Records
---
Amino acid sequence: MVRIYFFALYLLMGSLMINAQNTPPCSDFNDPSNPYGNWSPAPAPNGNVSVGVGSANTFDGSQFLILKDLSGGSWYQNWKDYQYLGKFFLGQCIYFDFYLENDSGYGMPYHPNITLSDGTNSATFVANITVTPGSGWVRVKAPIQLSSGGVLPSNSDGAWTMSPMNAAIFDNIIMNTQAIGISPDMTSTQQEVVFFDNICVKPCEGCNECNSNFKIQTTTSTSGNFTIAQIFLESTNSPSLYKVDWGDGTIGDVMTSHTYTNPGSYKVCVTQYEGDKPKCTTCVEICIPKPFQVGKAVNNTNLTSPLKDIAAIARAEIGVQSETKDYTLVPNPAKNYVDVQMNLAKKGNISVKISDMSGKAVIEKSETIENGRQSIKINTEKLIQGTYIVEIKSENKVSSQQLLISK
């Protein structure tokens, strides 16, 4: 009889364990008695982070996690709730909300990110969207997917990265996830403050999914006396959910164009609303020219958020030929390396040239690449921080993209 009861208890516990593992993990940091749940600083010497909670996250009005950088490695991790993500939640996404309070003099647009580990190796999802101190909350979703053809998964929000890139190790991280980690580290100083909230696994698609990404087209009159700007959403949501702040004190709907009569730099922000509450915001900076700078009508169609939210990158983008991107730079911004990822219809020779903003070539590399999804790894350790142009040649076709180096 004892054995029967023990076996029944074992089955019951096993059932409860399976149900718990199949419940998508979600950390909203709202528990009044223990807002941190199973999160804690990483083991020494990498857990040098101060934590707290604050309110309110403008997405949902809830409490959020505050991370402050201390001297040394500053990782905050959860080794319990997010295990074996690929086993239980393959095809879903890890969502997280992010806000940058203080960048400790980083001085550049920052890409929110989140890291998974199998206990030995790690992979980081880097968001396309960029933030600056006080620019507002953003919501990012990272796909829980396996690599394909040696290329790590990506989506409209960003891409998975790791160094060195190894698809087999990445797949093991996804299938045998042991921990999830976040960090405020950006610089060698210790003043960074970031907010995280709603780190949750859930289906990637949804009605009125939060997506405030947009393109902006500006057309300047031949006299240069005025410039007309028009917003084009990168979302299938109803335009009625959005408002645009044109950066000159005017707020309107995204379907109505706007006229600028004064030259200067303007920060244009599009916000998606849920009821009367803002859900997510994306901003891009545009430059309205002075009359004497204009000789003919200008049509800037390539100012695309979120990667082009500083004027230097926007101006560089205008100088590069407009074409569909056949190649992807991952990660971007890069530090010690960048992978030029591509999908070739047939085998061919690919030449890659990286030039600084003066046009001087600083790196050149050429390889014969097989057809299908392939990549060329470029060592960028010797490049100084700044903006570069990457030119990729294949047969008679040339593609150019911006690369941001962040040290």
---
Amino acid sequence: MAAVFPKSMALSSSQRWISRAWLQSAGPSRSAFQDSKRNYMQDTSIPLAKYGGRHTVTMMPGDGIGPEMMGYVKDVFRVAGAPIDFEMAALNPANDSYEDLVNAISSVKRNGCGMKGNIETKMNRPDIKSRNVEMRNELDLFVNVLKCKSQAGIKTRHDNLDVVLIRQNTEGEYAMLEHESVPGVIESLKIITEESTERLCRFAFDYAKANGRKKVTLIHKANIMKLTDGLFLEVCNRVAQDYPEIEHNDMIIDNTCMQLVSNPWQFDVMILTNLYGTIVSNLICGLIGGPGILSGSNYGPRYAVFEPGTRNTGTKLAGTNTANPCAMLNASVDLLEHLHLDEHAQLIRSAINKTINEDKVQTVDLGGQATSMDVVQNIIAHIKKGL
């Protein structure tokens, strides 16, 4: 079953859904999920691209296995009859001009949503900024949502995990504000603001309330980073008071990693800063089967971008026909759900689940022997049966 998001998610794709209510809460009596739609969205006179009942979506293949995975998405959508037209936007991390990034961002703004493979950032070029981070900042994709759930057909150390990560996307340790104060001394700034933190925390509690979740845990390191993470913790504690029906606690990041390995069932919804979210998402991904399954959704006031959850390029697997296509295909289902194409989304999601859990057609990362194409063809076969 698809997760429930604010009412505006059930409205037309020409509107997006994060509310000023999350920035200016009126107190315990106010619920963002109960307010009228005008409280949720930034109204705009600029319509999103949609022609003849079809949705135009920006597709950014990225690097490594990204182009191959996007090809599989196109194949699956074609068979399922999904009314999606992709506008391609190639990104070149070696390009110094950033013209490619400007074009891609313009495309997402025009279409309202996109799919993205991870874009490799050259580590030996400090003058080149991460296109992944720049895009999230420019589009104000302030939250990254990962739904981490065990698959019955995948043998792992822990079973029956069901955790949702609500990760900060536009602040924290990924502010990309670094400088050399004196030769040999580098300073990196971590940015936390009260306004953005409240927006993130209200999103998490509203998500928990709408989806019947019982507990929200804030992950921090306020014992050491007393001002930045201290503010993060303080704001979340204040927001939690507006949701007395939801249990709330906090946990230090290093203890969190240990607890996830030893007793992951204690977690329900987790709120994390940017860096902590990277660490925990990869850890949980390993607990449920690896990076080939989990998808991630990035949301902002007007735009949304969908991608594999662990944001890996998989460069070594490119062209080998061994990469697991399910993470990108699950991201494509998240896209369809976002556009309210629920029948198409359910058809593809069911085909993916049957392939992994019933037929056990699995790539090497899941312990199987199937190729990427074997998995895709099996998914397509189930889609044809369901039509």
---
Amino acid sequence: MEATQKHIIQDGSSMFYHQPSVKQMDISVQTFDSYCTLESSSGTKSHPCPNNNITSSTTSFSSNGSPVSHSNNNNNTSHLSPDNNNSPLSGSSATNNNETELTSSGSSIYKALRCKDPTGPELLTYMHILYEACPYFKFGYESANGAIAEAVKNESFVHIIDFQISQGGQWVSLIRALGARPGGPPRVRITGIDDPRSSFARQGGLELVGQRLGKLAEMCGVPFEFHGAALCCTEVEIEKLGVRNGEALAVNFPLVLHHMPDESVTVENHRDRLLRLVKRLSPNVVTLVEQEANTNTAPFLPRFVETMNHYLAVFESIDVKLARDHKERINVEQHCLAREVVNLIACEGVEREERHEPLGKWRSRFHMAGFKPYPLSSYVNATIKGLLESYSEKYTLEERDGALYLGWKNQPLITSCAWR
């Protein structure tokens, strides 16, 4: 789901520095589309899939050299058709995984999926649809922003290091909140880290993010500076982060740490290395948002079951806003979720980038790195409850040991916590 962190954000300006009721917190949504108009950019051509039928997809894979079997193809995939309302795991996600097991070529399928991106604007549209269909990403943005605002409320110089800046949409509400802060706004500096591959969806380099956030900050009266770092998190070193003395430091890990290989994958253990590196910076707060699933070191069968249970709940929750046979639903699944599911189930070793851990394991890693919990405030909890009022009552919110768990029908799907 981390691919969708490139869009809109609810305006939480009043949330951070006042104490409104839950009803008052139900503020209008600031769309990323209007945020993007602060700086126009040109479109980008790509190589969209000719259609969403799995037969043509496997034919395409075969023409690229992957050993794909076509025997009984229609019979094996028909029960997973998007038109079959008995299957919550609809569309391309389930079908691709069925093909994965039939052909033993999951790694090839995953690589082929990565080569079948839509155009940049189309991808943004699909991610926008997913963002609106479920509250998981708004939950992550708002909870992290609330923790950061609380941690820097008395600071004059604030430096935010975002380990997955994407489109920069998370910081719209925080910049507005800081602009409205009693006593005047602080000077804000954001270091935005992002995998260079994300420039495709962004339709340009990280300088576009800096320009848009800079114009927004100017409108809000917030002194602002942006530094973009187009590199993978495994390449991050302290000297690349530009930390300065006298700044209050906030570090943001939004659905990104599970991509870091740990000791079970490489001797470098970038997952724990990155946490130790951040601890050396003595940050005021570190925010962590992650999917609540246990797939990192699990063998195939338990990992398969865990993945299916997790994503079945996700897809079922999407049903509330988006019908399973809706054309855009199929596009959303194919371009925003399918690759995650295929990678989780079909890939091993360094090829498996999706390596989720439950919050209990993240707690152990943070404690070993020297961090202490920074409990989320009651105002953050109230804001999330207000956010959920515009969604189904089947979403559940639980506070446990200072962390928030957002789930579907009491099954936790995503968690948010903070450390210092």
---
Amino acid sequence: MKNKITLKELAKLLNVSVSTVSKALHDSAEISPKTAERVKELAKLHNYRPNPVAVNLKSSKSGTIGVIIPNISNTFFANVLLGIEARAQKSGLQVITYISNEKLEREQQIAEMLTSGFVDGVLIAISEETQRKKEYDHLFNLVDYDIPVVLYDRINLDLQVDKIGIDDEYSLEEATRMLQARGIKKIGIATSIHHLGVGKLRITGYRNALKNENDFYIANSSKPDSLREKTQKLLVEDKVEAILCTDFVSTMMVYRLAYENKIIIPKDLKVIGFLNADVARFLTPSISYVEQFPEEIGEQAVDLLVNRIENRIGGKQPINKTINTKLIHLESTDF
């Protein structure tokens, strides 16, 4: 007896994406009638069937949700999890937490386990390696098995599910324009997450605010030694007057190098970072930062998921929800 054909194999035979096959099988208006017909004919020919356990979930619930976190040592995700746990408890739900450690293979393993049908829905922030390799079949499989999915924070992916995050692009554009309005002309950006969707959006926001391309100064690397070298150049050779840091690592790198090179913050250099409020306030000088409200992201992510599980959201159109950020001024941007 032949093994059941998978969604990925159907897509390969049709020379289309897994997303296209999934949407066609779910009668998405985004897919042309001709393509939908081709997909359904081939699926019927190969006796394709979705996961039967997942189908049964439509009429029975476990009272449990799965949460995939890419990096628990990142205080942002730790605080998102706090929000998830608090709201899930109020909703009478149990939470099973998985950590992908930014690895594609681990994320794939977790997704495969979750398709077995023991959770009612899944919250996921996509791993760094998944984004870099652009391998998303395991996520499309979750959707194909009719498991409600909500993406949080790392949401720059064409997956037809509910999403919640901040406006990464606007947050850095706003910060750049604020510095410009105070007379700062030479503004740089440091990042160790330039290869991730959120990192790219933050760089775009900074770039949008620049008056011309010659004003673009960047230190970008996910490797500490390389990031250090490039950041050193921004501070010592380019002598930027202010620097925007897109993440915790780049923020700490800027502070360390400023200290080593006797650059006084905020007298010689203004700094704005993306980091936890507790860390920002206890450094000397305290760091101005973009408040992302991670606990609120976690709480509202659960609300979106519960509404999908309970079919409270009319229609099939995914919801994209944006949490407004706030620029918190501390000592590093004193004028």
